[in-house]
Prior knowledge:
- The protein is of the alpha+beta class.
- The protein contains 15 helices and 22 strands.
- The strands form six sheets. It has a six-stranded antiparallel β-sheet, with no helix packed on it.
Amino acid sequence: MVTGSDGFPDDPTVKRSKLAREGPPAISFALTIVDGPDKGARFLVDGQSPSRAMLGKSPACELLVTDARVSRRHVAIEVLGSRLRVTDMGSTNGTFVDGIAVGVAFLRGGETLRLGDTAIFVEQDLSPASVGATAKSAFGALLGASSAMQRLYPLCERLAASSVPVVIEGETGTGKEQLAEALHEQSSRAAGPYVVFDCTTVAPNLIESELFGHEKGSFTGALLTREGVFERANGGTLLIDEIGDLPLELQPKLLRAIERSVVTRVGGSSAQRVDVRLLTATRRNLDREVQLGRFREDLFHRIAVTRIELPPLREREGDVPLLARHFWEQLGGDARAIPADLLVRWADYDWPGNVRELRNAVARRLALGDLADMDELTPTSDPHRGEEPTRIVRGGDAIAKILSLELPLVEAREKVIEAFEQRYLEDQLARHDGNVTRAAAAAGVTRRHFQRLRSRD
Length: 457
């Protein structure tokens, strides 16, 4: 069997435990256009870059071409270890590697990538990387010692020191809000307010009022004059979470507010000047949303002055044990008591809910002990008799009720987690005589997040 440079089998069918040490640092790749309107142009994709680069004919792309048959955002390109990942972004004319149409491809160098009338030769770049990784294992509340995270920290520090708008991208549960708060806390605006607005938690007809405020009597139910989040964040930082869910009809108003640094309350006539550093976060692919016409390109250009993408937990080699021990201690347990076999199982799990799911798993294990194991459901009848196995539930009546709904795994798991969280929050409040501040501190979350979890009931 052929082995890679790290000594592990170079075979995609061989599963490697994620507790194993990572291989050598990522290398860089050179992309040279050998045919097409931009023939001779050369791009370098840095192996130490913390985020993927976009190639297309949109001015927002890091790798810009002029080929009319190339889509505005044609492919995303990023270095993962010793390979270059190329992802088609729903292009009109497709992406081809050595003549084969691909959606996602992993290149090692020596391949020819064709987009429209443009042919690009891909090769490894052996020159030293300009930006190295750092030995840090955290940035504020954002924790991780994997190379995928360490590559982010120098960029995080530079972003904290600046005042430019930032788009924070990543799957649900990767820590986007934690990064935004850390950027604020380590910025020159740390003494100012930090305000979060989540586009998914407010009814669409009330979002404008929440963003910009409203005057008394401006609509039914507007009994008092109220400031919007821009005014409340004046002198500090505003995070607009899940901006990809902002209704299209409100996007021009948000663009005007950002460009002019002024807001006008609903029902008002005078403009209020605001001084706000804007951060935005999204689980959606904004490039794709722009292509589909669901997100305005001019607003995208205005908020995406800089972008940072948080990697999913499945791509953060070695971080699961580190995070599990951190959450175990944060929730009041002794990290030395974590069973070794449990850490191995957790390390080899893909965590579709990312860091948030891992934290919930740790909390569930601390609360339920062995009842929280993944093998809670076991068949009791002989499967060879052809009858439907009887399911035994060791997790209590709440789990049994959820199972009786016969939901898909992901939905059922979310309901189990929500049920546990509500019980956990009630227990913390009881332990602290109903004091939300002390209960939130004991739970290891912010008071605002504690209240948000309670309101989900």
